[in-house]
Protein: NAD(P)H-dependent oxidoreductase
Amino acid sequence: SDIRIAVLVGSLRNDSFNGQLARAMAKLAPDGLVLEQVRFDDLPHYNQDDDGRPTEPVRRFKTQLAAAQGVVFVTPEYNRSIPGVLKNAIDHGSRPYGQSVWAGKPAGVLGISVGAMGTSMAQQHLRNILAYLDMPTLGQPEVYLQQKHGFFTDAGDIAADDTKQFLQKWLETYAARVREHNDRTIVKT
Ligand code: FNR
Structure:
């Protein structure tokens, strides 16, 4: 059966390059791997006082994440880290203590930036957070992309064949990792 992966895009901007990348990746995904973007723009600022009375967007966000078999983060770099809105969403999913939606879910990290370092620093910060959240995260291949004019076609696809093939390979590697993880995981009844 299909593997369903939640995709979190770290930019809320309408014309986000990371949003375009996430949509292009969903189209490149191999059979059996379904990438679905989960919104978090409607989450309030995380406040521990509200753990016992989550608003509807918080409940929806956690239900969607809980149903996913893995999580792919597609995020820009803001000031050499991840955007605050993404950290806020991660914090929401991690609480109440002991009820994290993240624990054990295989993660993948991608990003595109206008800068030449292609979100590398943000990705390192994010990997640190994911390690703490107990998310086994694909280490190779790493994906550091620089947005230049013509990176995306007008239809929103990735223009360069070699980049497209590289990202397809990444998706296959990630899918295999999620399957291995599922096979190893003992289902408690
Ligand atoms: C940036 N940008 C940026 N780029 C980068 O490579 N390293 C960085 O540390 C930062 N810092 C940063 C902070 C803030 C607040 C903004 C708004 C932008 C530029 C960033 O790569 C560019 O705006 C991308 O277009 C953002 O990604 P989306 O929104 O296109 O997905």
User: Anything to note?
Assistant: The first strand starts at residue 3 and ends at 9. Helices lie at 17-28, 56-67, 84-93, 120-132, 161-184.
